[in-house]
Amino acid sequence: MAGMHFEYDEQGGTFYYFLLSFWFLVLFPATCYLWPRSSKKDSASDTEKKCICPPCREKQRQLKVNEPWTKAKQKGINIGLAMGWIIFFLLLYKVSMSQMDYVEYDPFTELSVDRSASTADIKKAFRKLSLIYHPDRESGDSKKFMRIAKAYAALTDEESRKNWEEYGNPDGPGVTRFGIALPKWIVERENSVWVLAVYGLVFMILLPFIVGVWWYRSIKFSADQVLLDTTHLYLYFFNKTPSMHLKRVVMILASSWEYDRLHNAEIVERPSDNEELPALMRELSNLGENNKERPLCFPYSIKARVLLFAHMARKSLPADSLEIDKQYILKKCPSLINEMVNVVPQLVGGAVHGKCFSMPTLDTLENIMKLSQLLTQALQEKSPALLQLPCITQDMLKYFVCRKRNIRSVKDFLLMKDDDRRFILRNLSDEEYKNLLDVAASMPYITFEVKSEVIDDDDSTITAGSIVTVTVNLKRESMGDHFRNNTDSPSKKDDKKEMIEAEDLYAKEEAESRVTESPQRRPLRPWEKKKKKNNKKSGKKSNKKVKGPPPRSNASSAQAAAATAAVAETKEDKKGTVATIYPASSETAEVENGKGESENGSDHEGSENSDEDLKDGNWKDNPNGKDDDEDWSKYQADIKKETILETKSKESHPVHCPYFPIEKQECWWLYIADRKQKMLISAPVFISSLKYEEKIEVKFSAPRKPGIYHYSVYLRSDSYLDSDQVHGLRLDVKQAKIIEDHPQWEISDDDDDKKEEEASGDSDYSTDNEESDSE
């Protein structure tokens, strides 16, 4: 009976194959990952647009200080990769020069005859080779002669030939041999102790240690590399203080555990802090150093808070101590602020579902986002936006805001006449003035479009609880290109209208809400009349106790009519609305239920008329008709968009932030809110890849109660002041359709069983007489 036989590599040939394969599997991915990326050289236009103000030059100098270490690190990586590939080619050469120990047995090759040779040719070849390799001859070779005799027997003897054809061996089935691509010295008794020691070191000490370190670090940090203890700290304070002003946000940010040496080994505590920090604190005001809340009163929190306020005040700090600490604190701020933004919607959702006691207000979220802008530009809370521009100082602001002109934003600054602008900035040189205009022209101008719809095959009406898809199209261009390309608005007055478009729209929404919240007085129901009669003691007391509708505004009748017309026009568009995942104010929904029901009636009438038009063959004149091919292509595009995983690079445009220690890219937050109720409707979406155009889709659940809801879609920058935009949206939620029960759907299982038994009884128990009768 055939057995098994394991053989280790005697010559080392197969071991080199294994080593070559393993080395390539490690070296190739490492090369792809660590290969130095070709740094894109700045073009002539980019070089010209770079800011040359003194703070920017100092920042570039500080960034170049770290370049030697970066270059040395990259040089070491390149040398390591080169050595790895040299070893690979040496192994490849060694493998190409090694010979295989095992060669497949072939009797025709042993006798040097063709496979089509006859028996006479085989015998002739055997005699010829026997005269040469017989052991009795001088040129004899016993091993070679045994192989020749074995081959001759395999080709002439029927049984041997059959064994060779079936088992590959003329002698029949032999021992199955397995080769192991490891050198033989590994299993030798003399080396067993060393092999066991290496095995225990690698698999019992190093591997558990590495996995333990990785697991210990992974459970401490979130996906954004923020300490989970810091996230819990944010949850506690935002739940404790729902409405939080900007100073309070700075205090909580400074109390993050990333700035504590016990949680972060990179934090350096210097003895000089005891002398430098008190002097710096005397220069600042309203730091809240007397606050006794933990950990707001801890020394690390106070130090971080003082450095943040000093940064926003653009204070100069000692370069060898506090300046280094301030840069480290600022580098951590973007991820920490983003974590704050993510914590707020969690608390809002928890409050809606009854898991939290308080709900953070919209002002808290906006103060967090504004803090990101202030830290990026090193500005205080009430600093004007013009200070973002280079060479603009606090003393120059009085010339921009006076009786003749009111220049408060970068957009107003660019829309000024060049002569007036140059006259105000006459103290700047031509190079500084050109650099100032280049930086202002490079700031972002976002074209903001919002569209919402219900994706449904049958009906696109927004009903209570339906899923609404909100599509936001963002187009980014620089202010200089926008004002240069748009020649439709040559005057500053028209551009000022565009600038306050959001405010006008919000005011229009407020007018609409006032009109919709004061419907016509309906007749009182019998029980309401009775209640009024019983409670009537005096005219004044009854007026106080009875809860009526909210008081009407003092707007003129013309304004009310215009607002009502605007509401009617908006209601015709079923796709210009947004749904919410959180319940909005129930007052608006309850007040406007009657109007919504009337609108439902008109919609049903319209659908009946459209059906009649289709029956009459007037489908071409129907404005609501849709092409099936377009619907199908749209459906296919949506399916394709959901199935394909699209990876986007987190690269947008560099931010002009000379006081921020690192290079920063433009990022944005997009969210939906109810400004009237000061409540967040959707979780903010962080946009980090808005380079030219971006399309964002968000799906929400419509409110549970029918009615008209007014929301606002906000786009806020994390880097620039005066770049935020708002777009008003109106949601008309209809009553959800009630699914009617049909009698044929209410068939019980017993009825089905009875019918099956009757059918089976007719087929199985029918007699011959019945069959003959039927015939």
UniProtKB/TrEMBL annotation:
Compartments it resides in: Endoplasmic reticulum membrane
Acidic residues: compositionally biased ranges: 747-775
GO biological process, one term: SRP-dependent cotranslational protein targeting to membrane
Pfam families in UniProt: DnaJ, Sec63
Entry annotated with the keyword Endoplasmic reticulum: yes
GO molecular function: protein transmembrane transporter activity; RNA binding
Stretches that traverse the bilayer: 15-35, 76-93, 193-216
Name of the coding gene: LOC115228923
CC per GO annotation: Sec62/Sec63 complex
PROSITE patterns in alphabetical order: DNAJ_2
Compositional bias (Basic residues): 522-547
UniProt membrane topology term: Multi-pass membrane protein
Record keywords: Chaperone, Endoplasmic reticulum, Membrane, Protein transport, Transmembrane, Transmembrane helix, Transport
Disordered as annotated region, ranges: 479-498, 505-633, 742-775
Domain of life from the UniProt record: Eukaryota
Keyword Mitochondrion: no
CDD domains to which the protein is assigned, alphabetical: DnaJ
Protein name in the entry: Translocation protein SEC63 homolog
Biased composition (Low complexity): 553-568
PANTHER family: SEC63 DOMAIN-CONTAINING, TRANSLOCATION PROTEIN SEC63 HOMOLOG
Span of domain J: 106-168
Species: Octopus sinensis (East Asian common octopus)
Basic and acidic residues compositional bias, start-end: 505-515, 592-607, 615-626
